[in-house]
Amino acid sequence: MSRIDFAFGVEDRFRAACEVARRQFLRGRKTIVYTKDMRRLSKFDHMLWEADKTSLIPHALCSHNLAEHAPIILTDKEPERLIKVFSPEKVWLLNLDIECPPGYKSFELILEIVSNIEEDKQAARRRWQQYREAGHNVHAHNLQLG
Predict the structure, then answer these.
(1) Is the residue at 108 inside a domain?
(2) Is residue 128 assigned to a domain?
(3) CA–CA gap between residue 63 and residue 75 (Å, rounded)
(4) What is the 3-state secondary structure (H, E, C) of 19-31?
(5) How far apart, in whole angstroms, are the C-alpha atoms of residue 42 and residue 56?
(6) N or C end of the chain: smaller count of CB under 10 Å?
């Protein structure tokens, strides 16, 4: 079963996701970022380039010819197809979509970031329920407290 961590209580879901991607990179962990909405993915791509003025958060869109060398891959396609790119390393899936990602059961670790926006919280509650009903280990982390 997959472990799914919900980090909630953030002001801006994408800024928090940039920080997560940066931390994962600095720890040497491979990350796949998924949303089926290409506009969201493009926005996140631009935010990663601008997230830290003093250092780089290396990443690539899955369609880029150097994606297999990037520690962070952004995709609007089925994320489980990319696991083999990082194999045999453990890969995190960072979900930025409003629905559960396709093929999420292939990942050991899935991170869901939830902002304080009501629509975002409602969509997260639906994903939480879907993960629980599928028997996954779901955890909540209130980032407002930290």
Answers:
(1) yes
(2) no
(3) 8
(4) HHHHHHHHCCCEE
(5) 17
(6) C
In a domain, 2, yes or no: no
Give alpha helix (H) positions in the chain.
13-26, 38-50, 83-86, 118-133
- Residue 135 vs residues 4, 79, 105, 131, 138: alpha-carbon distances, Å: 11, 20, 10, 7, 9
What is the extent of the structural domain holding 61?
11-112
Q: Which tens digit of pLDDT belongs to each residue from 15-53? A: 999 999 999 999 999 999 999 999 999 999 999 988 766
CATH code for the domain in which residue 104 is found: 3.40.50.10110
Question: pTM for this structure?
Answer: 0.92
Q: Give the whole-angstrom CA distance, residue 18 versus residue 51.
A: 7
Q: What total of structural domains would you count in the chain?
A: 1
Listed residue (8, 3, 24, 5) closest to 118, CA to CA: 8
33 neighbors 17 (Cβ within 8 angstroms): yes
> For 71-94, what is the mean pLDDT?
87
H/E stretch holding 77 reads: none
Amino acid identity at 62:
C
Amino acid at 29: R
- Look over the chain and give the mean of its residue pLDDT values, rounded to a whole number: 90
